[in-house]
Every structure is written in C-alpha cells, then in structure tokens.
Amino acid sequence: MKANSTEDIQVSLTQKHNQSPFTLARKRFFKNKLALAGIVVLVIFILAALFAPILTEHDPTKGDLMLIEKPPSADHILGTDGSGRDNFARLIYGARISLTVGFSAMLFTLIIGVVTGAVAGYYGGKVDNMIMRAADLVLALPFLVLALTIIAILEKVTVGIFVTVIAITAWPTLTRIVRGTFLSLREQEFILGARAIGANDLRIIFKHFIPNAIGPIIVNATLLMATMIIVESGLSFIGMGIPQPTPTWGNMISEAQNIRILRDHPEAWIPPGLAILLTVLAINFIGDGLRDAFDPKSNRR
Fold it and tell me: pTM score, two decimals?
C-alpha cells in the first residue's frame, strides 16, 4: 500500500509538472470562490447592459415634466428623476456607459503602458531614460488634477474624449510595472539563448517576454478597470465627466445631491451606488483571484 501511495504521488507530481503555467493558473483561479462570485456579478451587469432595450421600454434620456420625481410604481419601478426620466432605465443603460468607459479606458491605458514599458525594459539606455522621464513628468501631477485640467480646457466631452483623457493620464504606473518585469527577464538564460540563435527583437518580445509578463499585466489590467469605473463615477458626480443627459451611474448619483432627494427618494441614488460598489468589488475579487492564480507564492488560501 505504501509503495502504491508513493507511486501515485509521483504520478500526480509528474502530471502537474507537465501542465502548462496557464493550465495551473486556471485551476487555481477556479478554486477561488470570491473570484467566481465576482465573475457572476460582473456577467449579470454586462447582460443587463446588453439587453437593456428588452428589460425596459423607457428612454433613459427622454424626460416628462408630468412625471418629475415620481415614487416607484408598476410602470417606473425605481421612480423618476428631477427631469421625469425613468430611474431604472437610466440605471441599466448607465451600466453600458460606465462599463464601456471602464473597459475602454483600461484597454487604452493597457496598450500605452505595455508598449512603453516593454520598449523601456527591453532596450534600456537612452530609450528607457526618455520614457521614464516622461512617466515621471506625468506622475509629478496628481492624476485627478491633471485629468480635470484637460477636461476643463475642452469645450465638449464625449465618451471617446473622456476615455482618451483618462488613458493618457493613467499610463505611467502600468509602464513602470511592465518595465520592471522586462528588466527582471532581460538577463535570463532563455532570453540570452534566443538572442544567440539570432531571433529578432519582435520575436523575442512576443515569444518570450510577453508570455512571462502576462500574469502581472492581466492582474493590473483587471484592477485598473475597477479604478477607471470609480474615476468616471467620481468625475461625473462633480459634473466633469460624461455630460447629461447621457446616463451613467455617476450622473445618477450627481442628480441626487439635493438633501430632499437624499431623504425622500433613496431609490434615486441607492441603486446606482450599489451598482458601482458591487461592480468594483466584483472586479477586485477577480483581480485578486488572478493574482493568486498567476503567483502561487501570494496564495494564502
């Protein structure tokens, strides 16, 4: 029995050793219950945003002066706002804008950060110095102050412009992470071996560097999306984000700043507040799960 047990352990270790890092990471990720719960919550919000026209027949931007600040009813399950617009329609259509802004800003920032960080970490020298001084220059100014300044200068803010402004002010942090990862890999033996056999720079970067740096990149991209949703909500709350009447969760909370609305119409601000809270928590749980999956040493479960 003891010999068989030892053989089973050896077979198990051999099978585990033969599995790819992504296979092992996937298995570790799916053991994280909070990360799976985060995926479920995020999928629910995404489906609600995609099927918004099916879930409600009301136009989220069309007001009715006869329906201003009406309490919840069968036709308006979350009541109406100060312009007579249906709060439920604005909530689920707002998910489209908030999630789109969060994902797009994250993706744009990811592209800038990965490209600049990869170039700086791979080539080093003057190129690295130039990119990092540019990053230091952007980091010298507070992120929100810089974003607010750019938005204030612009006459009209659209979703595309807003995403661009957020991305061009948020890239340095990700650049530093990618650069540090590339610097740690640059002198590894498999990189030196690839150079010795004559592999060109693009092949080395995409074949060796990116796959080994993909873990930190994915984790930071996930957490970055949560940050972008909070930034959009915060800027929209103070009137510097996506302009009205475009529905966003931040705009809905901004409309409820009046003390009377806060007291008498909690249905106007609690749902969008909960939507922001649950979405950000879900994304953070997913990010934590990915971090533990790609870095087993950080796993304390």
Answer: 0.79
